[in-house]
Structures are given as structure tokens and as C-alpha cells.
């Protein structure tokens, strides 16, 4: 690409130099005198022109991302980006223009680091396969689950964990099926098992269950049930804020 002096607001104050030369001749003895010509470049125009030319060579950084498709986890690894070092390039081109140089310049580039490098901890729940998948930088773990029955389906979408409780108390939800039921304290027979991970989907969470026979079926009122030992493992793998995608 070519950056022309006219496009970047180059001016040379020749008239001022000539006037200076005339004044010198009046005040000093005859003889050679060097009169500098003041040169200016519009830095705003120069930066804008360089940024426009740099678009063709720019490589955007790419963050590490995790997706779930057709029953499998797809991890896209991060990539370092490349962009023009605009400040250094502006100085370099300005000097070339004001010095009269016409040789091609190799402009300085800079590396742009991605924002996410490590594999982010992510949970995927596949309702059709009755599967919960935890993806972490250390690997992928898969667990069997039960999901919502047809009358109370587990919602699909992307949510996140908003609450974690050890040995939770079960409180009946404001729903017709729970009418007349009272709280169940922690212990054997608690519908939530020993761990509760509440989601941003209202009334929905991941938890253990004493009804282990229900795993692998549509049996809950919208929550994701796990074997108690598996829920305890997942509890230790995730944090509040961990994204949970249900498909």
C-alpha cells in the first residue's frame, strides 16, 4: 500500500523559508546560509490512513471457546492476533515523509493476545442423551442424569450457576404438584441429595437424588438429577458463575 504526502496533510512552508532567506541577506554578510524549510504532517490524517491500510494484514485474536454439537464437545483453541503498531508506524512514516525518503517501508507489527487462553469450565446437559458433561482445562468428564418429565420439561438454553449448597434443605416450590408438602431437612431421603447447584433458570438446579433408579429417564419436575456421588464430584468442579448450556 502507498501512503502519499497529500493524503496525510503534508505541508512545507516554503514561503516562510524564502522570507527568512531575504531577511538574512539584509542583516548578515553575503555568503551561503542554510535556511530550513518547516515541514508538517497532519498526524490525525496519517494515523487514520495507516489504520485503513492495515486492515488487509490484520489478524484478529481468537479466544478459546467450548461448544457442544451432535453429542460431542468441540473446543476451539485460542490464536494470537497481529495488528499494526500504530504509534511506532506513525512516527516511522512521518520521518520518511519529512526526510524525502521514497524507499518502501516495512511497518512494525504487534502481537495481540486473546482474552481467553485456557479452556473455560463449562457444563453441558444433553436432555436427549441423559448426559451432563463438565469441560475443564484438565479434561472432560461425563455423568448420567435424569431430566424433567414431559409435563415439567427441563428448559433449554444457556444459563449459569447462581448458587451452591452443601447438605441443602428442600423447600417445596410454588407449584401445584408440591401443594401441601413441607420442607425436608438435610439427611437421608432429602430430594436434593447432598449437593445443590441452582441455575439462573428459575426453580431449576443440578442436584443429587436418593431416587437413583430415575437416572437415565425423564422423571424430575425440571431439575437435573444425578447420582449423589456424581453430584458431589460436579459440585467440586464448578463455581458460581459457571455457564451451563442445556440442549
Overview of the structural elements:
This protein has helices at residues 14-27, 43-54, 86-99, 228-237; strands at residues 11-12, 39-40, 65-69, 72-76, 81-84, 109-112, 122-126, 131-136, 139-144, 147-148, 157-166, 195-199, 205-208, 218-220, 224-226, 243-246. It is rod-shaped, with a radius of gyration of 34 Å. Helix content is 20%, strand content 28%. The two termini are 48 Å apart. The chain has 247 residues and is an alpha+beta fold. The strands form 5 sheets. Strands 9-8-7-16-11-12-13-15 form an 8-stranded mixed β-sheet, with helices on one face. Strands 1-2 form a two-stranded antiparallel ribbon. The mean pLDDT is 88.
The N- to C-terminal Cα distance equals: 48 Å
Tell me the number of helical segments per DSSP (H or I, 4 or more residues long): 4
Structural class: alpha+beta
- The ordered H/E elements are EHEHEEEHEEEEEEEEEEHE
Order of strands across the widest beta sheet?
9-8-7-16-11-12-13-15
Poorly predicted ranges: none
The Rg value, from CA coordinates, equals 34 Å
How much strand? 25-35%
Which word captures the global form? rod-shaped
Q: Roughly what percent helix?
A: 10-25%
The largest pleated sheet is described as: 8 strands, mixed
Whole-number mean pLDDT: 88
Please give the number of β-strands.
16
